[in-house]
Amino acid sequence: TFVGRIAQDLGLELTELVPRLFRVASKDRGDLLEVNLQNGILFVNSRIDREELCGRSAECSIHLEVIVDRPLQVFHVEVEVKDINDNPPMFPATQKALFILESRLLDSRFPLEGASDADVGSNALLTYRLSTNEHFSLDVPPNHKQVKPLGLVLRKPLDREEAAEIRLLLTATDGGKPELTGTVQLLITVLDVNDNAPVFDRSLYNVKLPENVPNGTLVIKVNASDLDEGVNGDVMYSFSSDVSSNIKSKFHMDTVSGEITVIGIIDFEESKAYKIPLEARDKGFPQLPGHCTILVEVVDANDNAPQLTVSSLSLPVSEDSQPGRVVTLISVFDRDSGANGQVTCSLTPHIPFKLVSTFKNYYSLVLDSALDRETIANYDVIVTARDGGSPSLWATASVSVEVADVNDNAPLFAQPEYTVFVKENNPPGAHIFTVSAMDADAQENALVSYSLVERRVGERLLSSYVSVHAESGKG
Question: Which UniProt keywords apply (predicted)?
Answer without folding.
Answer: Calcium, Cell adhesion, Cell membrane, Glycoprotein, Membrane, Repeat, Signal, Transmembrane, Transmembrane helix
